[in-house]
Structure formats: C-alpha cells, structure tokens
Amino acid sequence: MQPAAIATRSELAAILADETAFRAWYHQALPRVYGYLYHRCGRNPAVAEEIAQEAFVEAVRSRRRFRGQSDPTTWVIGIARHRLVDHFRREERARRHRADITILDLDAAQPPPADPASDGIDDALTEMPSLHRAVLVLHYMDGLSVREVARVIGRSEAATASLLARAREGFRRVYREAST
Amino acid sequence: MNNDLILARLAEHGAGRATPDPAFEERLYAVLAPQLRRRPRPSTPLLLVAALLGILALGAVAVAGGLVRTPSPDALLLNPAMLEPCQVLPGPGIAADEGPRTHDGDPRIGGMACGYSWDGGNNPHFQLRTEYTSEPEARALAAQLMPSSREVLIDDGTVRAWLGTVEAMEFEYVAVIGHRDPYLFVGYLRAGDKRIGVPQPPSPITDDDRARAVALVHGVVANLEALNAGEPPTFALEVSE
To answer: Range of A56's domain?
Structure first.
C-alpha cells in the first residue's frame, strides 16, 4: 500500500475514532459534499440533502472499505456520485411512468424556483431527460472520461458516447432557447 | 453563444460550494453519531466466506450424524437382477442383420427382450418392467413390426449414468422393443437442438433406420452391462442434428 494511502486511512481512522475529531471533519466535509450535489441536481436543496445523508451514512457504515486512495471527503463525494446517478435513474423511471398517467397535482410537479446565480445552466439541466443530465454532470462537471461515465451508468462505451452526444446537443439547444 | 462556451459554463457550474441548512447539518449529525459508536460493518466477501464455512460445517455435521445420506455411486448401477431376462448383445459395430446373441449357458435367457424406454413428454420416469408395454405408440409399433415383442424399462439412475456427460436432456418418445431379432429403437432424446437416436416416428421405417437403431441399442445394452460389471461405459452416443 502506498504511504499516502496509509496516511489517509489513518486519517479516517483517527477521524472516526474520536467524536470531536469527527465533528470537526464533518463540518468541513458536509459543505463540499452538499455543494457537489446541490450544483448537480438542479439546486434542489431537498434532493441534495437526501443524497448527502445517504452518502454520509453509507460512508460511516462501510468505513472498512475505504482504501485510502483519496482523502476521506473525496471518498464520500465518490459515494455521493453513485447515489446521484441512482437518483437520476429513479427520476427517469418516474418520468416514463408519469408519461402514461395524468398528473393531477400540478403544483407538486413544478420545478424549484429559478436561482438567479445559476445563469440559466440549472434551468437548462432541469429540462433535460435524467439520463442526459447524468452523463453531462459526470462528464463535464466531474470531468470523468467517457469510459468512466460508461462504467458508472452501466452502459457500453459506444452507447455512452452516443448518449453524451445527444445530451450535449440537447443541452445546447435548451440553453440557447432559455437565453433568448 | 459559442458551443464551447456553453459547455465551459456547464463545467464551471459544478465547482461551486453551497452552504447546507444548519438544521439539516445537525439532523444528519444526530443520525451519524450513533453509527460511529457501532462496530464497522464487515465487508461482503468476508460475510460470504463466513456463510460458506458455516454451511460446510453444518453439512459435515449432518452427514457425520447420519441425518443426510450421500448418494452412493453403486446406487446408480443396475441391479444384476434387472438384467436377468435380458439377452446379452454385442457392442456397437455389429451388423444390423446379425441379431443379438444370447447369454452363454444361461437357460433363463432366451426369447426375452431387453431394452429401456421413457414414456415421453415431460415425465422422464423409469421403472423396471417386465410386462407388455402400456405405451400405446410403442405397443402399436411393436405389434406392427414384431408381433411377440416385449419391453423392459430400466431405472432412471442407470440410464443417466451411461448418458454421462449428456446433460439437460429432454426426453421425448423412446421405445426399445426387442425380440429374438434385432432390437428396434424408436424415437429420440433431445439435448438442446441435438437429437440422439433415430428421429421419431421413422415412417416408413427404412432398413437404414433399422440398422442405426439396432447399433444404438446394442451400444446401450453393452453400456448397461459394463456398468453392471463395474466397468465404465464404452459406447459413445452418436449425436445427429
């Protein structure tokens, strides 16, 4: 094992061994994890909180799986990323299901109010199908390669490249329409 | 707006921090704190290994204590008594018109037939039988071709033993009908898209069908004998499309 990995594993062990240390780390880590999610889920605080909670709980429960290849906060963000993709998948399934039924409660279906700081990016992302949003987030925001995106979403590299091309085109179109 | 600029904005968009609601921060901490005091969850591979070891230990105790009986290879072999009424046939390669030979010096074996049969369909059930067949098609064919034929069914285990590596077989209509003359094998077994034996029904039955059927049955019976003598079967089933 690399010395750096041992150091980060020791770091996590020290954080988890002492409640005070954990609290200090948690106060630093939560804004990063929450911020990561908040900017990728359409600035929806409820969704960001839900996924952040899932990620932290899973990280603490499965702390033995931490290999020390990154700092502990990055590790939690990695878990959050997978939960975010799960969230996009659930959204996509729900969208398909909704296509067959009439939505009676229109208020509940409204997107959250637009954030003036988002510069139209969030609005455009929210308009995109969930799977397109997932690949855009993973590739452009997280900087994953097409191969890495394919692994995360469980598709072939060719299918992911094609999906990404469609998502990119759709995003440009929606963004331009929203800007004009 | 330039396409690259749009994507650059998208990329930058994900880099910002955000401040969570303090109430959420406290709520989540309250969830995490008790988890910290618990022992970490063992990894899944460790759990699997532990479960496997547990199952093996329980199995060993059950076998040693006589609660579970493991199948004995001998149980798969044919009981010698089952072959008593059978004629002893030469192995594959015998000419179709040569016919079976009888067991030297055994007065009990004469004009009896020996063979095996499945009653077809999805019911591969085998029994030793010495009475005339109750399978209508086999009986009708037997009556048509061999007026004094008889049929003997042999247990499932034996047949499966000589089938050896042929797995997942779907048993279709099979009948072996014997007389003093060559045996007739009608029907086939199916393993996937392969057929073993003669396509059924061979109508009209040609001399060639008959020759193949005879050779096959000779091989089958030779294998039964080998198993009965504690030797490995030597006849390889011919698989045809």
So the answer is: 1-107
Residue A80, pLDDT score = 92
User: How many domains does one find in chain A?
Assistant: 2
Domain range list for chain B: 3-64, 73-240
Structure token pair of residue B188: 């086939």
What DSSP string runs through B101-159?
-PPTT-TT-SS------B--TT--------SPP--HHHHHHHHHH-TT-B-----HHHH
Return the residue of A nearest to B18 by Cα: A35
Residue A3, token pair as written in the block? 């010395």
The answer to whether B41 contacts A175, with C-beta atoms less than 8 Å apart, is: no
> Which parts of chain B sit beneath pLDDT 50?
71-139, 141-203, 205, 237-241
What CATH number does residue A147 fall under? Answer: 1.10.10.10
Q: ipTM value of the model?
A: 0.75
pLDDT of residue B196: 42
Given this model, what pLDDT does residue A96 score? 65
Yes or no, beta carbons of B41 and A62 under 8 Å apart: yes
Cβ-based contacts of A175 with chain B (< 8 Å): 1, 6
Nearest residue of A to residue B8 by CA position? Answer: A140
- On whether both A68 and A51 belong to a single domain, the answer is yes
